[in-house]
Design brief:
The structure is a single chain. The protein is mostly beta strands. It has 2 helices and 11 strands. A 5-stranded mixed sheet has the order 2-5-6-4-3, covered by helices on one side. Strands 9-10-1-11 form a 4-stranded antiparallel sheet. It has a two-stranded antiparallel ribbon with strand order 7-8. The chain is globular and about 50 Å long.
Amino acid sequence: MKYFVFKVMAVEAGFIDEYPKGSPTDWKFAEGISLAKEFPMGGEVSFSDNYPDHRNLYDFQPNLMSDLLVSGRARKLIESLELTNAEWLPVVVKDHKGNVVGPDYAFLNLQGAEPAIDMERSVYRMDSLAKDQIGRVKNLVLKHDAISPQAKMFRCTMQRRLTLIREDVHAAFIEAGLTGFKVYNAEGWNGLNL
């Protein structure tokens, strides 16, 4: 099975720079823990005033928090793939003027993590603050036998902000024409988003 590093990237996207008011503390979104009970019902996010000309909406909407902010269309597809680790935190996306432009978005909060990174063969630097997390990957090597056969889209235990997707998930995203993301072959990835 082949895996890809999944990155949210898009041109002139309406950039979201904060979670809805009343959300859990930012760091909790990177933990792979359930946030549904703490997340505000009817939450709203808005395009950043720092990028006034960026107004495009995508299926995966770029955001400062590096989270998966997903359109209703993408959510339906992801739900059809029967991910067992998906938690949805619904939000409404508004433009710079407060108009609703994305009524059916949600943060995809992937639960848990997979021990996918071969810590002996990969080249990396540990994070200076989160001592149990990789800060920078220079050459990623996967430990395929440690990844659950059910894991289709997941966080990595040693770098929870790194999302990997299986090749069949990538093919489904391409076939559906989903927008706002780029992938890199996970095996040998140098940590850069070019």
